[in-house]
Each structure stands twice: as structure tokens, then as C-alpha cells.
TrEMBL record:
<keyword id="KW-0648">Protein biosynthesis</keyword>
<dbReference type="GO" id="GO:0070681">
    <property type="term" value="P:glutaminyl-tRNAGln biosynthesis via transamidation"/>
</dbReference>
<dbReference type="GO" id="GO:0050567">
    <property type="term" value="F:glutaminyl-tRNA synthase (glutamine-hydrolyzing) activity"/>
</dbReference>
<keyword id="KW-0547">Nucleotide-binding</keyword>
<dbReference type="GO" id="GO:0016740">
    <property type="term" value="F:transferase activity"/>
</dbReference>
<keyword id="KW-0436">Ligase</keyword>
<dbReference type="GO" id="GO:0006412">
    <property type="term" value="P:translation"/>
</dbReference>
<feature type="region of interest" description="Disordered">
    <location>
        <begin position="67"/>
        <end position="98"/>
    </location>
</feature>
<comment type="function">
    <text>Allows the formation of correctly charged Asn-tRNA(Asn) or Gln-tRNA(Gln) through the transamidation of misacylated Asp-tRNA(Asn) or Glu-tRNA(Gln) in organisms which lack either or both of asparaginyl-tRNA or glutaminyl-tRNA synthetases. The reaction takes place in the presence of glutamine and ATP through an activated phospho-Asp-tRNA(Asn) or phospho-Glu-tRNA(Gln).</text>
</comment>
<dbReference type="InterPro" id="IPR003837">
    <property type="entry name" value="GatC"/>
</dbReference>
<keyword id="KW-0808">Transferase</keyword>
<dbReference type="InterPro" id="IPR036113">
    <property type="entry name" value="Asp/Glu-ADT_sf_sub_c"/>
</dbReference>
<keyword id="KW-0067">ATP-binding</keyword>
<comment type="similarity">
    <text>Belongs to the GatC family.</text>
</comment>
<dbReference type="Pfam" id="PF02686">
    <property type="entry name" value="GatC"/>
</dbReference>
<dbReference type="GO" id="GO:0050566">
    <property type="term" value="F:asparaginyl-tRNA synthase (glutamine-hydrolyzing) activity"/>
</dbReference>
<dbReference type="GO" id="GO:0005524">
    <property type="term" value="F:ATP binding"/>
</dbReference>
Amino acid sequence: MPGITREEVAHLARLSRLELQAEELDHFAEQLDVIIGAVARVSEVAGQDVPPTSHPLPLSNVMRADEVRQSLTPEQALSGAPASEDQRFRVPQILGED
């Protein structure tokens, strides 16, 4: 398998808008060659009878059921705030907004 060339890395760097030094081009060319080789080996192992998956085991979301519960009062929620106004947190003005 031909390795990735220094020129290909330079092209990828230009497309990515990365400025790479000469020694970095050689270093990344070696690393990308190893990565491409590893992907090729995985592709060889996967047979036609193995479906593509993102995880080896099935995943399921573990969510609790929504329950209506007592929440904080506005006074309790604002009790630790450095400043409040009209039952809301008061924060410094930003971006010249009113």
C-alpha cells in the first residue's frame, strides 16, 4: 500500500487552513499512513456477514420518568444571587442592550 505523501499532507493542511512546518509535514505523513493502514486492516476483518455498527453492544437510553415535584420558590432560588430584580437574577448589561 503506497504511503501518504508529504505533498498530500501539505494539500490537506491548505484545505484545513493549517500552517505546518516542513518537519510537521513529514511527521503527520507518517502518522496518517499508520492511521490509514489501521483502517484498512479493520476493513479486511469485517466480513459480509458482520453488519456495520457504532458499538459492539446494544445501547439504550436510561431515563427516569418525568414526575411533577415541588420546586424552589423564587425567593429560595434567588437567595444566593448577588443581585436580583423583579424575581429574576440581575446581571450586568452586555452588548449595549437595553
